[in-house]
Structures are given as C-alpha cells and as structure tokens.
C-alpha cells in the first residue's frame, strides 16, 4: 500500500468505528490527578480515567554524540529532514545506518545518480519474498510474529533490534546490501567517531554482515521446518538460499571529511520516542516507558505500538490488533475494579 492508501484506510476505519477522532489536536501534557489524568491539548483539556499512549517509538531521530565534530561545510540531515535526491548538496552522500531507512535512502540516492557510501552496523537482512510468498506472510503463518514478550529470552535486546532491510514496491523487490553494491553503493563499517576531521569506521564490516547472513539462514530454516511439519511444502515454491553478503576485501577505515568528497551525511541511525509531554514518572533514564506488556507503571495508563510490546509484531499496523484486544481487556478490568462510575458515563 502507498502512504496515501494507508491514510485512507485509517480514515475509513475511524468512520466505520464511529470513534470521536479529533484531528490537528496536539497533546501538550498528560498529568496524573486523583481520579485519572488531565490531558492538555491544543483544542482544550480532557479528563480521562484511563489513557492509552499510542504515539509510537519513532518520534525523534537519533544522532550520534560525535556529530558536532563533523566539519561545518558538510551538511548533516536526518530522515526527518530528507525530501528527495534533488535537495541534497553536491558531492558524495554518506548514509549512516543500514536498517530499513538507511538502505531505502541509499537506493533512492544511488538510482538518482548520486555517489553513495553506506556505513553498516548491526542489521537484519530479509528477502522480500521467500519460496513464492512475501516474507511477512512467512513471519505470520509460521508463528514468528506471534512470539510473546514473556517468551523472549532477552527482551531488552529484542526491543532494540533494528528494523529489517525491507522496502515495499509493486514488484516486491528485495533490498539488501548486495542489491545496493550492484548499483555502485560503497560499503564501510560502523561509523565509530570523528577525530581531527576524519570519519573513523569500524573494521568489523565482514563480521556484522556474516552475522546477519547467519541469522537470515536460521530464520529460513525455521520457515522450512514449519512448512514441512504443517504439510505446506506443496503450497509454496522449493526451498532456497541467498548469496552471502558481498563485502569489499578492504573497506575504508577512515574518510577525510575536510577533503570535499563528502557533501552530505544522512544519519539513519534509528529513532526514539518523545515523552516530553508525559508528566508522569514512568519513563526510565534511557527515555523508554516502564511497562509490562503495555500496562504502564501508573494506574490506568497503557501503551500500544511499541517494539515487542506483547508480541514481535507489535509495531506493525497489521500486528497491533491482538495487543490492542489484550490491553483493552486490562483497561476494562481496571475501570470495573477502580472506577465503576466511569462506565456509566
């Protein structure tokens, strides 16, 4: 679906559900009061016995602390600033980060004729299709997306995993590092720091790519085992494996940012939530909500749409339904137990 189609879907859903949606109303603060929460917004105040925070985990782009050391004549952008290749300053573009945003921007810039260097750190490699089906079909059908948060061995790490290297196109094109290098994109290691005008990169490019390949093959093994166990082998194409990521024999470890080669750096280094409006002590020192499967550490406060909130699919539009059903069950029970008068209003 295109962005316009997604927006239309949400608008039609709101109409169908009859939800009292208030558009163009910025929430400026949420505060705890004796019997619930006071929500201040641009259209006035609301009082609510319960509040569900569904503002997402990608409100602000993350920029490394060493970014101010980049020479002033190199333009620095985040994905929030980027509009199109035609708006980018002359010179080579250094894209930092090889998750979904980084590879998508690198592909678009490379197709436009721009020279691109991609700094690669930890990433999740996925084919767009596998055995004739979209990879997200496999994730859903095989049960990977349904793994619950209380079944994940290292939940903290799972919630920090980068977004997979995927792009949505009518052709269902696979966008990975091999696809990028085939168009001329140069790969370098993780951007470690800037020292005396020099961008310094990690020498572990081959290792991070090998690890991503290993994890991909483990995932595909799991898909194959599920298909065999469920008798679905005849419904899909034969099993396949993909070529390992091609890494240059000797990637650059340093780049002189004062030489004029690099005109722009795009920091595709992830995102974080923004809870500056939330005046309730439920945010940890790293800026994340303290919650247990969506039940936030304050009575009547809930969350939806965060990474692995209750399942691995929690941040997907198509994956939030099960989470919403369970969180709503908790919310309803809370109202019945502690605020019965609210149900009569």
List keywords for this structure.
345 residues; alpha/beta; FAD/NAD(P)-binding domain; 2 domains; five-stranded parallel beta sheet; four-stranded mixed beta sheet; 22 strands; globular
Task: Describe the 3D structure.
The structure is a single chain. This protein is α/β, with parallel strands linked by helices and 345 residues long. The chain has helices at residues 3-17, 100-111, 135-141, 155-160, 177-181, 205-229, 320-338, 340-343, and strands spanning 27-33, 36-41, 44-48, 51-53, 60-61, 75-77, 92-96, 116-119, 124-125, 129-130, 133-134, 164-165, 186-188, 191-195, 198-201, 254-256, 262-267, 271-272, 278-279, 291-292, 295-296, 301-303. The strands form 8 sheets. The protein has a 5-stranded parallel sheet with strand order 6-17-7-8-13. The longest helix is centred in the middle third of the chain and has 25 residues, at 205-229. It starts with a helix and ends with a helix. The model has no long low-confidence stretch (mean pLDDT 94).
């Amino acid at each position: 679906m295109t962005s316009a189609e997604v927006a239309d879907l949400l608008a039609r859903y709101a109409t169908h559900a009859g939800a009292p949606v208030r558009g163009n109303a910025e929430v400026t603060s949420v505060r705890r009061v004796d019997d619930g929460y006071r929500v201040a917004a641009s259209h006035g105040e609301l009082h609510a016995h319960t509040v569900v925070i569904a503002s997402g985990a990608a409100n602000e782009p993350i920029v490394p602390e060493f970014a101010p050391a980049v020479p002033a004549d190199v333009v620095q952008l985040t994905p929030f600033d980027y509009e199109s290749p035609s708006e980018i300053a002359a010179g080579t573009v250094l894209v930092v980060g090889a998750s979904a945003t980084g590879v998508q921007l690198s592909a678009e810039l490379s197709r436009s004729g721009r020279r691109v260097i991609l700094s690669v750190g930890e990433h999740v490699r996925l084919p767009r299709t596998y055995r004739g089906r979209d990879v997200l079909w496999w994730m859903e059908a095989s049960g990977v997306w349904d793994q619950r948060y209380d079944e994940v061995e290292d939940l903290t790490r799972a919630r920090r995993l980068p977004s997979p290297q995927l792009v949505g196109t009518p052709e269902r094109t696979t966008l990975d590092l091999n696809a990028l290098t085939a168009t001329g994109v140069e790969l370098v290691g993780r951007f470690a720091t800037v020292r005396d005008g020099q961008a310094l990169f990690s020498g572990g490019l081959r290792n991070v790519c090998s690890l991503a390949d290993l994890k991909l093959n483990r995932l595909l093994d799991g898909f194959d085992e599920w298909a065999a166990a469920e008798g679905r082998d005849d419904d899909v194409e034969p099993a396949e494996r993909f070529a390992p990521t091609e890494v240059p024999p000797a990637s650059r470890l340093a780049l002189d940012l004062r030489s004029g080669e690099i005109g722009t750096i795009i920091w595709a280094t992830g995102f974080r939530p923004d809870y500056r409006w939330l005046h309730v002590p439920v945010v940890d020192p790293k800026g994340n909500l303290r919650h247990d499967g969506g039940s936030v550490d304050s009575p009547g406060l809930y969350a939806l749409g965060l990474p692995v909130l209750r399942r691995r699919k929690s941040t997907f539009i198509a994956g939030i339904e099960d989470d919403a059903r369970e969180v709503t069950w908790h919310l309803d029970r809370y109202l019945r137990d502690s605020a019965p008068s609210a149900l009569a209003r």
